[in-house]
Amino acid sequence: MDDETRLRDRAITLAGVAGENVEVSSANPVNYHQAVDDPAGCEPVVVDGKLFLPPADRPLPLVMVVPGSLGVADSHVAHAETLVAAGYAVFVLDPFGSRAVVSTVANQTLYSFAASAFDVLAALVVLSGHPAIDAERVCAQGHSRGGSAVLMAAMRRFADPVVGDAVGLAGVYAVYPWCGHQFADPTVGATRVRAIVGDQDDWLSVQQVQA
Question: Confidence band (pLDDT; 50, 70, 90) for 180?
Answer without folding.
Answer: confident
